[in-house]
Design goal:
The structure holds three protein chains of three kinds. By secondary structure, chain A is of the alpha+beta class. Chain A contains twelve helices and four strands. Classes of the chains: A alpha+beta, B alpha/beta, C alpha/beta. Chain A: Keywords: Lyase.
Chain lengths: 366, 300, 204
């Protein structure tokens, strides 16, 4: 017997109650502290800060807990919160050259000023499950260098000294802000980089990978990857100078790509750039491959593959948008489905009618 | 993070000003999609963030808000959005179409004709009517600029050639004041005629795609068609089983797995109002008394 | 700090959120129903030469993202500039063509409509909105319009528009979808002329 569905509100309340129950899980297991998440799931926290576009470890940890570990849901929580925050101003550009590096590697040179610093990397670990981590084994503190670190010259400056890599001058004017202006294609590189930096790691990874397999191949070399903290400064007009407001951890990737040169330009390497909050080398590398691919038009290359197409890449790289729209398909669509159902039934009836006519004609002919 | 820390109607004032400016330009250029710097909202993109931003930007403490999804006030997303505004704006809400000053909708236009002073806010997923013919924004923008809509007519005509019908049954494109081709949002084409010369102001918000557009009252809105294939709305060969209404859009409800079906008003307020006025459909007598709690179980 | 600047802190919205919403709804209703006069209580008290209603509309729509042009009568008033700067945060546009909003206290002497930003064919929304302070919206030469938002036709008779307004407005509507939009105000009365409002030729 049909009863018009009522009680949507009660259903929602009950669903949320059940969600809270499942989130907590077995009550005999201690609840996770935000400090545990921030300390021991630090790379998840980094991803949430980076794609959530908000540098706040505690809030990112809270979002991960609230989202039951679903990182895209956590990113969404952080984004929805950050959009309500008042804007006090904008920082000066950060100087990654002055970064306090914890990791810095270059694939282009065996050694270079500042040296190769492996830092806290999974590289060269054997991916063997470690049962000891089921408990809480004693862990030695990391080994620290003695004395001050040698300044780590940026790869671009090393190659730039010989004029072997394109210059990367500051674009004139304000860089723009993807939060404040509706997107208008074609986008400036600054706007593209902002979008890529908060873009979905998986999407950029797949696109970057495709460039390596020949979809807009760019002959990439990792010029360098550096991870560490930089100081963030804000210019205060009343004081007339910039003051530090805090430090953030960043991962920067400078990709060095081949370029043939032209009649006007001598042969030189080109650049792809990646910069993200926290420690996320995979994302920074994928971003720099995508950035390089998206520079196709500027570098006079034919646009032949999806990673070079800015409307395609930028319009689809945001996982908060993507997940919302894909998942909205589960909302009721029965009004539209009814419209389609009506048309398909009509067309079916017409089809059957025509076929019956054909049969009658054939039978009459026989 | 409680409601108390948020501004009236959630959005900050700078965002409201930006959206309000876009609304005014949209009204001045009926059918043209105004780009706006859409914000993240506390509900997912694709779930009405554009409509919610438009509503939040126009809403005042004296407004009475109605929210519908699929024509009904009690569908889950309608309930969720209505609750959101109750919480962040403390405004009065209603399910009665005639009592509402602002109606936010997804997929339907109410059956009760709208009146002067009412605003209908549509949630729009893909605002660009040409998007499925040409995925590039740079290209579709040019086509609107040059009033180059041939591609759309070709597509509709190909439908006729292949199927004998225009195969678009919802989000059926319209032309506004003889100038802009506009997407009416995924309402069934049944509702298209209601947009034409409406007494109400109609505002369209697409959050993810960052566009706002508008139809002022008394605006000419024509569904695209051909002389030999004039535009037609859906017809149902029976009245609503609960209130007996004809010439309304119906939902098909599956009663059993043996082909049993019933058809009832998609506009729940329209249906309930008619039943209260004493109208009865053929199955109205069989309607059970409130087994609301049982039904709630099923919804979960 | 001179007297004018001190005064600039006063006379803004007493309840910024609700005052802006009420003023916006009046403007939105007027824009949606062109050439219809709407009465609205001004909720701002700007310095003389800027009317309370125009001051309130400025506080509602203008901010740091929208350059504003002031006609000479408003622009020469230090008090008006300081007040608008404090309450809206808007920067002044050097020329009419660079402004998103123009505030005009002397409509009879205003620059031609085509000197303001018209928008482009692809982005017609990037055009100026002109806010005019008139002596009255009644008693002048009647102007009759039709178009979206108007049931049949609508007539207003504003006083103190430019002498060749009919010609200028006809050209403005011909540029559609480009063109400027007007917010006309007099005292507590408001009427809008979006670019879509077409003048009906009247036999003279």
């Amino acid at each position: 017997m049909y009863v018009a569905v009522k009680g949507g509100e009660a259903a929602i309340d009950n669903a949320h109650r059940l969600l809270a129950d499942r989130r907590r899980g077995d009550r005999s297991v201690p609840t996770l502290g935000l400090d545990q998440i921030a300390e021991q799931f630090a790379l998840s926290v980094d991803r949430v800060m980076s794609e959530g576009s908000l540098y706040d470890r505690r809030l990112a940890a809270l979002a991960i807990k609230q989202a039951r570990g679903d990182l895209i849901e956590a990113i969404f929580l952080v984004r929805a919160y950050r959009t309500t925050l008042p804007r006090f101003g904008h920082s000066e550009p950060v100087d990654t050259g002055a970064m306090q590096v914890e990791r810095r590697i270059s694939a282009c040179f065996k050694d270079l000023p500042g040296g190769q610093l492996l830092g806290p990397t999974f590289d060269y670990t054997h991916r063997l499950l470690d049962d000891e981590l089921d408990g809480d084994p004693a862990v030695e503190p990391g080994a620290l260098r003695d004395g001050a670190a040698e300044p780590a010259t940026q790869i671009a400056d090393i190659l730039g000294g010989e004029g072997l890599i394109e210059e990367d001058p500051l674009a004139p004017g304000e860089p723009g802000d993807i939060n404040q202006t509706p997107m208008e294609f074609p986008l400036s590189r600054a706007m593209r980089l902002q979008s890529l930096s908060r873009g979905d790691e998986g999407f950029l990874l797949a696109l970057g990978y495709s460039t390596q397999r020949g979809y807009a191949r760019s002959h990439p070399f990792v010029g360098e990857i550096r991870i560490g903290e930089v100081e963030v400064e804000v210019f205060v007009p009343e004081l007339g100078f910039a003051v530090p407001v805090g430090r953030v951890q960043l991962t920067e990737c400078q990709m060095v790509n081949q370029f043939k040169g032209s009649a006007k330009t001598p042969p030189q390497f080109t650049r792809g750039y990646g910069l993200v909050f926290g420690q996320s080398e995979r994302k920074a590398m994928a971003m720099s491959l995508c950035d390089r691919a998206l520079r196709a038009e500027e570098l006079g290359e034919d646009i032949v593959a999806p990673p070079q197409d800015q409307e395609f890449v930028i319009s689809h790289c945001d996982n908060v948008q993507a997940t919302g729209f894909v998942e909205h398909l589960k909302l009721p669509h029965y009004v539209d489905f009814q419209a389609e159902l009506g048309l398909v039934r009509t067309m079916r009836a017409e089809y059957e009618a025509t076929r019956n006519e054909d049969v009658e004609i054939r039978e009459a002919a026989e | 993070m409680t409601a108390a820390t948020y501004n009236f109607a959630y959005l900050d004032e700078q965002t409201k000003r930006m959206i309000r400016r876009a609304i005014l330009k949209g009204i001045a250029i009926p059918g043209y999609q105004v780009p706006f710097a859409s914000r993240e909202m506390p509900m997912p993109y694709g779930w009405g963030t554009g409509g919610v931003q438009v509503t939040a930007a126009i809403l005042g403490p004296d407004d009475v808000l109605k929210v519908i999804d699929q024509g009904a006030d009690d569908t889950t997303n309608a309930v969720s959005i209505r609750k959101f505004f109750q919480r962040v704006a403390g405004i009065e809400t209603t399910t009665n179409t005639a009592d509402a000053t602002i109606i936010q909708t997804r997929h339907r236009i109410p059956e009760t004709p709208l009146q002067e002073g009412q605003v209908l806010v549509y949630q729009v997923p893909i605002p660009e009517p040409l998007r499925f013919l040409e995925p590039r924004e740079t290209e579709t923008r040019k086509m609107h600029a040059l009033e180059e809509y041939g591609l759309m007519h070709v597509k509709l005509y190909e439908d006729i050639a292949r199927n004998g019908h225009i195969a678009t049954t919802y989000a059926y494109p319209v032309k506004v004041e003889g100038r802009y081709v506009m997407d009416p949002s995924p309402t069934p084409k049944f509702d298209n005629p209601k947009m034409h010369m409406s007494e109400a102001l109609q505002l369209f918000g697409a959050g993810r795609e960052k566009r706002i557009y508008a139809l002022p009252p008394h605006t000419d809105v024509v569904s695209l068609d051909f002389e030999d294939h004039p535009f037609e709305v859906q017809r149902f060969d029976r009245p609503c089983a609960l209130c007996g209404a004809e010439q309304v859009y119906l939902d098909e409800v599956v009663l059993d797995d043996r082909g049993g079906r019933m058809f009832v008003c998609s506009d729940s307020d329209h249906c309930e109002t008619r039943q209260a006025e004493g109208f009865r459909g053929e199955l109205a007598g069989e309607k059970l008394d409130a087994s609301t709690s049982d039904r709630t179980e099923e919804v979960i | 700090m001179d007297a004018a600047v001190t005064h600039a802190f006063e006379g803004g919205f007493a309840e910024p959120v609700l005052d802006a919403q009420a003023t916006f709804r009046a403007v939105m209703d007027a824009m949606a129903r062109p050439a219809r006069i709407i009465e609205v209580a001004p909720r701002a008290a700007p310095p003389a030469s800027l009317s309370p209603l125009v001051g309130a509309i400025a506080c509602t729509l203008i901010d740091a993202d929208t350059p504003m042009w002031l006609d000479p009568r408003l622009g020469e008033s230090e008090a008006v500039r300081a007040w608008l700067s404090f309450h809206t945060g808007a920067r002044l546009a050097a020329a009419p063509a660079e402004a998103a909003f123009a505030l005009i206290a002397d409509p009879g002497e205003m620059p031609p409509l085509d000197r303001f930003a018209q928008g482009t064919q692809e982005y017609p929304d990037r055009s100026a909105t002109l806010i005019l302070q008139l002596d009255s919206l009644e008693g002048g030469a009647p102007l009759t319009f039709h178009g979206p938002g108007i049931k049949g036709e609508a007539t207003i008779a504003p006083v103190s528009l430019p002498a060749d307004f009919v010609r200028q407005w006809t050209e403005n509507t011909k540029r559609f979808p480009r063109g400027v939009d007007l917010i006309l105000s007099a005292g507590e009365a408001l009427a809008c002329l979006p670019r879509s409002a077409r003048l009906i030729e009247v036999e003279v």
